[in-house]
Fold each of these.
Amino acid sequence: MTNPEIREFIQNAIGENPVMLFMKGTPHAPACGFSARTSACLNALGVQYSALDILPDPRIREELSGISGWPTIPQLFVEGELVGGCDIVTEMYESGELAEKLGVEQPEGDEPEPEPVQRQQAPIGLENRLD
Amino acid sequence: MPSASELKERIEAALPGANVAVEDLTGGGDHFRAEIVSDRFDGLSRIEQHKLVYDVFGAEVGGPIHALSIKTSTPEGTR
């Protein structure tokens, strides 16, 4: 894949997926604590989202940051717009703003538990989390 | 290798009058948490507030500064 192809792939992913998370690793096997916490917030809300592992190719991150102007991973997009990284998503989860933005009920009870971190390389591709 | 006090000084220089606290989370000089209270954030979205802080360090974030966790607020409130 060339850089313009990667950029187009990312732009399509942002445009076509209402809730799009770019992360290190996958929701089932996050490879970084910040990515783990961010996907845990979405899991706790029970929303459907798409996730793309940026680790397989360093150009994914370069092109993504070029598009978003945001330097770090993870990055959450809702309806094509950057919502934020781990800090903002966590703050919005705790305040209930994230549930509101995603049109779901805020769950009662504890903070989301990050899933265990295991490093896993995957080919470039989208994971659609349906459970 | 950047230090917490260096990061604090640079944020303060970029956002005059801001109240800044920076913590080196691991002691390794690459994972930091910064809490910043500044009236410059007034009227800005969270994204815009955090970008103001990221912009202080440019490409160093993701490079020598592996992770920079940010919490921003205005003197009035937490938005």
Amino acid sequence: MLDVRGVSFAYDGARGPGSPARPDRLESRSHVAVREVTVVFERTQLVALTGPNGSGKSTLLKLIARVLAPQSGEIIFEQRNVRDWPAKEYARRVGYLPQDPDPAFPMRAIDVVVSGRAPFLGRFEWESDADYEEAERALALCDAGDLADRYLDEMSGGERKRVFLARVLAAHPRLVLLDEPLTALDLSHVQQFSALLRDIVDRTGTTVLYATHDLNFAAAYCDRMLVMRGGSLALDGTPSAVMRPEVVRELFGFEARSVDGWLVPRVQPQTPSGRIP
Amino acid sequence: MNGPWKFIVHRSAFIVLLALCCARPTSPPHAVRRVISLAPNITEIIVAAGCQAKIVGTDNFSDYPEAVKGLPKVGGVEPDVEQIVALRPDLVVASASGVHPNLRRALDAVHLPLLVIRTDRLSAVAPAIGEVGQALGCPSTSSAVSLITIGLQKQRRMRTHPPRVLFAVWTDPLYVAGRATFVDDLFSITGARNAVEANGWPQYSLEALAAHPPDLLLYPNHSVTAPAVDALLRRAHAKVVAVAVDENVFTRPGPRVTLAAAELNRILDQWERSH
Amino acid sequence: MTGSSRPRRIIGPIALLTGGLLFALIAASTFGAAAVSWRAALAGDPTARAVLFDIRLPRALLAALIGAALAVAGVTFQTLLRNPLADPFILGVSGGAACGAAVSTALGWARIPGLVSVVAFLGALAATAAVFLLARRREYTDPTRLLLSGLVLNALFSAVILIAFALSPQSDLAAAVRWMMGTLFGATWSDVALLGVFVAVSMAILMTIANDVRMFAFGVDDAKARGVDVERIQRIGFVVSSIVTGAAVAVSGIIGFVGLLVPHLIRLIWRRDFRVLLPLSALGGATLLVLADLASRVALSSSELPVGAFTAILGVPFFLSLLRRSR
């Protein structure tokens, strides 16, 4: 479904946070965020994108979402280059949720979610009753049906994330891209949200690619895990292939051991003088 | 006396002596030989009183009589105190309506006396000449004063049907001369009636101009142009006779008030003849 | 399913605000410095006709157009910049216009009817162009740089204005200062027609891109991902808003408060997105300015006060009461 082929992208610090460097100066003085990444996604997959901060996870998601354009390589979605897809049509099929979404003005949840139907509207069209029904269905799917009439600033972090997930789902996309949806959620909400994503993938056949820092929850629910480092794709495999102490040591830089399928950091015992041997 | 007290008394005496020698008097000295005028009407008043030779510098706007134009200029709204000092005057004379609030302090700091003269109303002009003449010791003071007084008396008119007159100082928006102003005094003396009821220099509404148009509209010939007046009258849909008057005479309370009154009388007489 | 989350109709608020505007226009035409009646005007009395149809009515309509222009520009800037504190003057438009007016006053051009307005409009356009050029980075217009450029240019313009005023002839100065405070004196039907064209065209263009503009409220990246051509929409929105603001300022001077607070007033009452806020803000801004101009004309019997003072006097208490009642 989605074919990422040798994609690279560098930010030009002097020109602005979202602006790409000029193609001929890819390596010069600018920050290469994504380096020759090649990966293929099929339908009905829950894929976790992990890696240290600055490894290029957000940039990769933005490249797939068409927020940024790659400087080399190409991204093929359903046999067509992403560049060649009309913007609105692509937006109907690929949903994107950026980190920390924060609408500038107070809004009700239902209005936030129904705005996810925007790619289906013509220039002068208003949302129809059918669009509102889709919005309500999306909220129900995300276990947020009772939040419809509440205002965003009255909600907890977990509730807001669910509303924004519903907004992405309201368009029934085939591919969902989520940039760190689990940060700042408490443990029960992380579990609930992860279970929700699993449920959506299984029920609707959508592919969900989400960036996360929590390896264990990702491993518990995902079909596949990608690990990025320094802009390159370091590892692409099943959770059991990725969740190994040697992987953690090499890619994340700390010692861990496997306990019942969970990766637990190895804590050094302390000497009487307080120093680590 | 014992030690400390002796010290204090001697020190105090020293300071008092120092102050006595070095302090300068702030009241005008008896003989004023060099004077600076900070307003065009003050300049004309000094000249009318007979002390033109004593003027060593004026403000930027003084332009009458002709000879005054060549004198050194010391500034406009905020006169340059350094330039004033450089001209070494004995006295600085300013008009009460144009004096900058900090001027007195600035001149005190350089020990220059400042004389402020009130000239905002017609009745203040003759006393102003007298006050200035006395301060400067001018020869023609009394004759100048009586010239004004008699001249104004000659221009006094009573008209059976006083024309309603409007004096516009600006057209967009319309600012006019109201009651209790110098221009209003000119109207009173020449037997005209000010179409404006409010005091001071208010903004006049276009509607009032349309609903109760005056008989005559007068405007100063430099600040206000004929096209501007035409535009104003067109917007108000008012057919009013508009006449330009000499700005330097009409808005400058000085010895030429008699000319202003005479010109006004001429305009009013002409209007009365054709109505 | 909750029935209350159905889309609410837009007709109600529009009808309400249109009614308010009509009421304000009628009031503004009825009251004023001269005591004339509608009956006399309709009967053919020339003075009454002149006052009502040639002085009061065009002035009231001009106030409505200016209020609409400023409110529309304000809501557009606030949505595109995602900044509730944005107003139509934030990108240097007012500074440029005021600079043009001040410099032409210093040169004595205020004595030629209409010239100051033209120079003010050109100043507004020049300022807008300058701000965009300063903020441009190849293909990318950063909103933060835009705001900073606007701020810096406004400061520069203030300096030029002060110098120009210091050098202006005293007689011309009072009128220039009054222009800076906002004045609708001497509004004519041709003013109404000219500004009417600007406002109508601008609103039409903004309504065309409204569906995309409202997506900015969720963030630029989000809007891009949803298929919005962010660069193009930003450019159109900013340019159209700046031009209509420049036209309004050229006619009447700088009237603050309307562009900043009317969109918030509308939002507090109706809480809808940009597509709805745009026409409602236009109507709300129009009504506020018509009433403010009426108040500025009748507050003192003998003189007119600056209209900008009354937009605040009328708008602020209303705004505060809404703020207190809101969640």
Amino acid sequence: MQVTTPSKEAIDVIKEAGGEKLDLCYQCGLCTGSCPWNLVRSFLVRRIMHQAQLGVIDFATEDIWLCTTCRTCVSRCPRGVEIIDVMRAMRRVIAEMGVAKVPQALRVATASIATLRNPYGEPAERRAAWSEKLGIQAYNNGIGLLYFSCCVPAYDTKVTKVAKATANVLKRSGASFGILGSKEGCCGESVRKAGSESLFQSLAQSNIQAFAEAGVKQVVVSSPHCYHSFKNEYPSLGADFSVMHITQYLAKLVSDGGLKFSKEVNKKVAFHDPCYLGRHNGIYDEPREVLKSIPGLELIEMPDTRENALCCGGGGGRIWMETKKNERFSDLRIQQALDVGADVLAVSCPYCMLNFEDTLLTNNKEDAIQIKDVVELVQEAL
Amino acid sequence: MNDEAKIGVFVCHCGHNIAGVVDVPEVVKHAGEQAHVTVAKDYIYMCSEKGRSLIREDIKKLGVNRVVVAACSPRLHEETFRGALRESGLNPHLLQIANIREQCAWLHEKGPMATEKANRLVTGAIKRVTYHTPAEEKSVPIFPATLVIGGGVAGIQAALEIASSKHVVYLVEKGPSIGGHMAQFDKTFPTLDCSACILTPKASEVANSPFIRLLTYSEVVDVSGFIGSFTVKVKRKARYVDEGKCIGCGVCQEKCPWTAPSEFDAGIGLRKAIYTPFPQAIPNVPVINRENCVYFLRGKCRACERLCEPKAINFDQQDLYIDLQVGAIILATGYDVFDPTPISQYGYGQLPNVFTGLEFERLCSPSGPTSGKLKLADGREPQSLAIIHCVGSRDHNYHEYCSRLCCMAGLKYAHLFREKTGGDVYQMYIDMRCFGKAYEEFYERVQGEGVKFIKGKVAKISGNGASPEDKDKLAITCEDTLLGEMVHIPVDMVILLTALEPGHDSDEIRKLLRLGRSRDGFFLERHPKLDPVATMSEGIFIAGCCQGPKDIPDTVTQASAAAARVLAVIARGSVETGAVTASIDENRCSGCKVCNALCPYGAISFDESAKASQVNQLLCKGCNVCAAACPSGAISTQDFTAKQVMAEIEGVLA
Amino acid sequence: MSFEPKIVAFLCNWCSYAGADLAGTSRMKCAPNVVGIRLMCSGGLEPAYVLKAFKEGADGVLVCGCNLGDCHYTDGNYKTLRRMSLLRKYLDQMGIEEPRARLQWVCASCADDFTEAVDKMTSELRELGPSKIKV
């Protein structure tokens, strides 16, 4: 007969690693009901919280690595339990205390980040390779903006176009900006969510130091994940710079009249709210203002938008992990976009772009709909 | 120092509580060495009869005229020792307590520092008490009329209780009729009485009572004064119907061609521009709502005027302001219902057939928009229902508190639905709270009627059914936490058990009456356990849901309790107000008026003829905020004068 | 014997005095350097009381009141907050260092807030030494 006894040590360890508010959970199950995993399989978030409360977590279970940190559960939890922090705490216990194995794919990615400061296994020196021939200056003191591209647009050939489009649009808007190339490295946001706390700390310190030495005061980013970490996590580590997501920057240009459009983009465009722009940071309107300002563009809404947006499946380090074919949220999201008749699914996160492109590829739907970053659509209309 | 002071110092051992830590003989010796101390002694239990007799004896025999008792906290026994002084003919305010138990012996380890601290406390008290002056407790007569604000079941009950003592009650209700939310309900749990049927007799009694002045369609706009003597200004809104002439025939509202959403039907039914909210309205006199009436909007129609036989319609009526004199006020303004629109996942206002509890009550009610028949938006009868608990309650995103009665209301709706349609009912709960008399039994009964219970907070209500055959249905998505599985349930209709909220006008009311609010937004009682119907303002009581969500039995009980408190005040005929009040020395007052605005009770006003501010002794609560601000040092509070406190400071640092 | 600071605490009747009493009732222990003086409301604290305390030889003054929003007299503690901020400027001019005059909200059930404030101020003032303005 299976009898379970609570383990005080396990509870303490989880709480110390960041899961303090766990005690408040009253097991209503709203988290499970809200979690996108339960659209494709069973994932009982509530049960994991209760297991953590009693310290009877099975650290070897793969379930701990499912959470994409999309924040749907946290934003609705009636007791304000920081479920993402609890997940992160458990992952930290595994990653740092070795009580179980970190999934293989994640280990490969974090090892690459630890040594090369990018998850692709590519040389650190090639971080600015995408910008060759574009004539972008190296950032130095006195320039207005630092453009921080994120590892994905920097290294992934499918997404480099986003970095190029961003640089182009910045130039055309008359902004004074530069890039740091190999002086910068991965922001560490997803590394931290995957439980590698000490790696995150060292990544953050390297970036903070590099930025400080170069006199960086304002940063514009392509990825909401970088935005989130720079805005909410870096300041307590000594960072002293402000950050804008590219859509915020573009929205300001639109309202100031600094973007002159000369062409039309006659497409029906549905905007997909990234979890880390929307639920994590409350930014819903700016990307839509930018899209609405593009001549000829018709902005349509899918179901499950804004606070209720369906996660693409990339956060929490899952972008580096394998997700089974019939368990991909991005497949569901693409179908929603097709159902409302969108020509283009507009994204503003490199992870979302990767996941949606992957869905089109694996389902042979490349011709059904286009995936474009908001900045690409802006570029088309300039 | 007052050279005539003869201080008696009495140090208590309190068994071992004080004596076990503090060197009591040393404290007595130290006290005896202070100036103006006639006698210093100790006793094992000063609060006992023997202890107090020591005080009385020394007052009589040694002419002691100031007393210091070094013992437990004044919050416990100040009144006890004041009694001892009173009994000896000494003014009870010529006493100072030194707290050498809670804030000395109990707080520190035994040793010289604890004794030294006790010495300091006693010396502070000795120096202070020489400056104490006698204080008179004031007595003020009570005006025997009462104001009850709010005509729901709480207000009705309170008014009836007071009227039964043959004292006048003014019952002010802002709507056209008394009855409140209880009049909107169909049946009440757990007895399943018809709500209107049990309320109407009480409401009729109100109408017929010679002691109750019913002021409907009226609002309180100003309250001034103090317990025993409040002056209340009431705005009687124009009904445009002469109450004296109207015979309640109903022809006007029958013939009125203009409709508007009915507030009584929670917005899901219609009423006319001239209307009584429901058939049993009391008074049975309609009102014309200016915002819906075409005569007021465009100058046309006047059909009601033409058709009214007794000629009771009067479009020229004005709002009327009247002043009332009352001795006490009972606030019974009830609650408002949480609007679930912000919870977008529940689709309220977007999807058809999603109702709040109050809307469902109106659907069930024979006087409701469907005459009591349950109908979906497309006219069909529903075959299945989901009831969702805790919508807006127990939720940090909306209201942290539990609204107390929704679990029971949910069971009631489950029962009513089964009775009317025989259909399937699913109740999604987090906990089942069935705490009252016969409540658990009702839960068992409803379970026995075949209602299905799922323990899980609903994540989403969608417009598409779970499968193609159910595409006309709503679908509930939630985790059944007891099964540990996700469930999708197609249903025809959904009821959201929405939170009870503080009344939306409670901020204005609170400012009128100078009341506090608890963290949850409901009005603050004096003490949640020991004094739940009184407020911090003397003479103002609260009853019913305006103090916090509660069911009808508790509301009626609380209303009776508030009425009893008022009747106690009326029966006494007069009330004593605190002696700790501030007063202003006219000669020192420079007329700067800084104090006037600072007083939280509005007790300070500027006397033009004296060219000085003055404190209303009956309104003042003795907080000393005014004195602390006075640049001329013109204000002092009885028992807390600057001289007294400064002397205490000197004493504790000597 | 090493220096033991003398601290005067002004406690409001409804919250902080009750909280201090509760600390005693719960037999919590704290430093005996703080002596409490009862006022009806922290808003009734005349700034002169603080100065008088320093004049009479106090090394520190602790002013306690109800949590904002909970004042028995509605908003007395807001006035305390304003007065203490202004008094701080004056104390600075007089050379009375910041740790010597503190404001601490203590609710009626917050016995631990009281004992912590007492112990904290006592240990800080042991380090800081005696007040320099003793007459």
